[in-house]
Design a protein that fits this description.
Chain lengths: 99, 454
């Protein structure tokens, strides 16, 4: 099953760092997300895009996880050569992750 | 919301509307809020990371400019109705020149006959001299600030709420700032209205939750959220901007005007709460280190969501400073290929440009080749399918403008020299204004307030 079936996500950017929220649609699925969507898995999913580490923060009251991806924007919004300098489109590819 | 006091919940409440999520945002929803929102405050957040560096460049050419290009349009539209309804306006549209923005706003108010209107400009965020006297470490690279040398254009500290509160205490109807931490535009009126103690870090933290949810306007009312079949949002062409209704203890609800498009739900609020957040237990702001980990979000009725549980701990005493610096030029060229074999022809075109630039001895700090439709967003790691249309994009950064121009020209020559069927060439060259940051002791960024009464 794809992550998209269980959760939604939004990208945020600061400098060369991206954060991807992961928010369970249903409270009942939150545990599964915690178990399956590890920092390592996210790093592997975005290999070639994310050069740095991936940190994971848990927000149990919101049934949400926040992933912070370092060195992920080709130098950051203001100087990146990328078409999507903010990495806005990363959230969609994140949800394509196979659980 | 009904008409008798349009309040979403009962009690003593301050209503703050968000009139812009970025400099170029839609105007109609802001005007709608001003007219029908029964607002105490209307906030316009309009400064992106490097906007101020761009504005600084503009100001260096013409000393009366350097404020938001839409300031005039926005003020003309909302000043009369805000005056009539006693709604105060708070905005960072001052950008690199809050004083000229104040003068401009005053002259608009005068033309509109809005006698007695008091406009304040907060300055002190421009700390270029202060940072040049020290040699702080660049947060992004660890290099000393001096390594930017002559390329440094601007340095602006993210100020806290204090000066804005003072301007309100002194009776300002409009408060115009340059760089302040975005949520401060929302916490300042609450601190002023409710007499919140700046050292009550629980309240300050909850205030940051309010400001953070509101500062991107429609991003909390269903904008940037829709994903058909998964997250459907009605009326995106007519999105309503958000209203926060805040109680003295900081408890608040977020809603929007009845009859507008969009959606306010627990899900829209959660997405926006985590937007641009790193450690949710330590969101650094000038006034408080905010902690979002205990925040709870509850739908109380259609399009009305209650948010509680923000907290915080004492600030660090350091301000983040954004440094704008010139970083050469980016040259770019694009060309499209379609139909059967589109991808192969685009790849061939890419190889030709690569070889041409190499043979010419062109040197770029960085160069990038994208096949839009195939690999431009995610590289080669995540992709699929064989696209029917592909657009080659070549972008390179270098110190020399002429060399940057060369990229677009090389792509353009593919018309007559490249693979079959290439079309729709575009090319551009831009000066790069990049941003890095340092920290600065807050006492090195004293603020000042100017007033102008019409």
């Amino acid at each position: 099953m794809k992550l998209r079936e269980l959760a939604h996500s939004r990208t945020g950017d600061k400098g060369n760092i991206v954060n991807l929220s992961l928010i369970a649609y249903q409270e009942a699925d939150f545990e599964l997300l915690l178990e399956k969507v590890t920092s390592e898995k996210v790093k592997e999913h975005f290999k070639g895009i994310v050069k740095g580490e991936v940190k994971r923060y848990i927000l149990p009251k919101l049934h949400a996880i926040n992933f912070v991806l370092y060195d992920a924007l080709g130098g950051g919004v203001t100087r990146s050569l990328a078409l999507d300098k903010h990495g806005k489109s990363l959230s969609a590819a994140f949800l394509d992750l196979e659980l | 919301m009904n008409s008798q006091g349009m309040k979403m919940v009962s009690g003593q409440l301050i209503r703050i509307g968000s009139g812009a999520g970025y400099s170029g945002d839609r105007l109609e929803p802001a005007l709608d809020l001003a007219e029908k929102g029964d607002l105490n405050y209307l906030v316009f957040e309009c400064l992106a990371e490097r906007t101020i560096a761009l504005a600084q460049l503009q100001k260096s050419k013409d000393a009366d400019t350097g404020y938001d290009p839409l300031l005039e349009v926005r003020m003309k539209a909302v000043l009369p109705v805000c005056r009539a309804k006693n709604t105060k306006i708070i905005t960072n549209m001052g950008a690199a020149n809050p004083l000229s923005a104040m003068e401009k706003t005053a002259s608009i108010a005068r033309e509109l006959g809005l006698k007695g209107m008091k406009i304040a400009a907060v300055t002190g965020d421009d700390v270029l001299e202060a940072v040049q006297q020290g040699d702080n470490t660049l947060l992004e690279t660890g290099n000393p600030l001096k390594s930017l040398g002559e390329s440094l254009i601007s340095a602006n500290a993210y100020l806290g709420a204090k000066a804005l509160v003072e301007a309100l205490e002194n009776g300002a109807d409009v408060v115009i700032t340059g760089r302040v931490a975005d949520p401060v535009l929302f916490t300042a009126p609450l601190i002023y209205e409710y007499g919140w103690d700046l050292e009550d870090y629980k309240l300050m933290g909850q205030g940051i939750v309010i400001g953070h949810l509101m500062e991107c306007a429609a991003q909390v009312t269903g904008g940037y959220f829709a994903d058909p079949g998964y997250k459907d949002v009605p009326g995106l062409e007519d999105l309503g901007f958000p209203i926060a209704e805040v109680a003295p203890d900081g408890t608040f609800v977020i809603g929007k005007l009845e009859g507008t498009g969009g959606l306010v739900s627990a899900a829209t609020c959660k997405e926006q709460l985590l937007y641009e957040i790193h450690d949710p237990a330590a969101y650094l702001t000038p006034d408080v280190i905010a902690d979002f980990t205990e925040v709870t979000i509850e739908e109380i009725k259609k399009d009305v969501v209650r948010i509680t549980g923000g907290k915080g701990r004492p600030k660090s005493g350091k301000l983040k400073v954004s440094l704008g610096y010139s970083d050469g030029f980016i040259g770019e060229g694009q060309i499209s290929y379609g139909g059967p074999g589109a991808l192969e022809r685009a790849r061939l075109a890419q190889d030709i440009v690569k070889a041409r630039l190499k043979n010419a001895g062109a040197v770029f700090n960085e160069i990038r080749y994208d096949l839009i439709g195939a690999d431009s967003l995610y590289g080669k790691t995540i992709s699929g399918g064989n696209p029917y249309e592909v657009r080659l994009r070549v972008a390179g950064r270098c110190a020399d403008r002429l060399q940057a121009i060369r990229i677009g020209n090389e792509v353009e020559t593919l018309y007559t020299n490249g693979p079959a069927g290439g079309g729709g060439v575009s090319k551009s060259v831009q000066q790069v204004l990049a941003v890095q940051s340092v920290l600065l002791d807050e006492h090195l960024a004293p603020t000042h307030i100017n007033y102008k009464t019409v």
